[in-house]
Amino acid sequence: MIANTSGYLIYHPKRAVSKDNNTIIYHDAIRAGNQDPYIWSTRFLHTYCHITQLSPKAGHIIFWVSGNTFPHFSQLYCDLVFVVETKLYWSKANSIERSDPLVESDEAFDDHYTWHHQHPFKKRKRFTLKAHPDHSFQPQDRNGMLIDIVPLLDEIGLSPERVRDGLKAGFQSKPMHLDTQAHMLYEKVQERAEIKLYGAGLEKVRRGRDGQ
Question: Is the dihedral of CA 204, 17, 150, 36 positive or negative?
């Protein structure tokens, strides 16, 4: 059970799609070093995308969404529910070693942590958000399709027009802050999702890919 808390909607490009046996998985394009949020880990990871526009704390819920057309979307498909468990600062903002205890695995290091070269910081401290492994998941319907949350947002008082305005920053997108609506949306997505993919299972898929 997630206690009443706040969170964010974050809009990002449409995900790539893979299949593992009968499981459909939505994820960043598989290229070394630039997958964020990173789903192939027991605790999902978030370090770069829109991170400087957030004020994340443990317990916050981040809903990663993509739409049919930005900013005039009519559907928003949620491909990740990310409940922040920990916020861990890097010892050096622009470098990290595989041996750093913050790094979970060789795969996470290659796929996620090395992206810092494209996102150098001058003064900021860099941190990684790690998701709660039991409360964070990729929600799908019974057919393995992502769930359109526009109707769910409308049910909790967030009209499509309000969401479009909240996610738009000029020609770009920005995170939209949610207050207690984050908890209400979490409950609705959790109830609607007939399939939930968790990090522990996805980590095994990633390691199996290297073993093929």
Answer: positive
Residues 157-181 have pLDDT tens digits of 999 999 999 999 888 899 999 999 9
* Encoded amino acid at 130, one letter: K
Q: Three-state SS string across the chain, please?
A: CCCCCCEEEEECCCCEEEEECCEEEEECCCCCCCCCCECCCCCCEECCCCHHHCCCCCCCEEEEEEECCCCCCCCEEEEEEEEEEEEEECCCCCCCCCCCCCCCCHHHHHHCHHHHHHCCCCCCCCEEEEECCCCCEEEECCCCCEEECHHHHHHCCCCHHHHHHHHEECCEECCEEECCHHHHHHHHHHHHCCEEECHHHHHHHHHHHHHC
* pTM score of the predicted model: 0.94
117 against 1, higher pLDDT: 117
Q: Where are the domains of the chain?
A: 7-207
What tokens appear for 29 in the block? 């394009």
| Arithmetic mean of pLDDT, 37-51 | 96
Q: Mind listing the pLDDT tens digit for each residue in 191-209?
A: 999 999 999 999 999 988 7
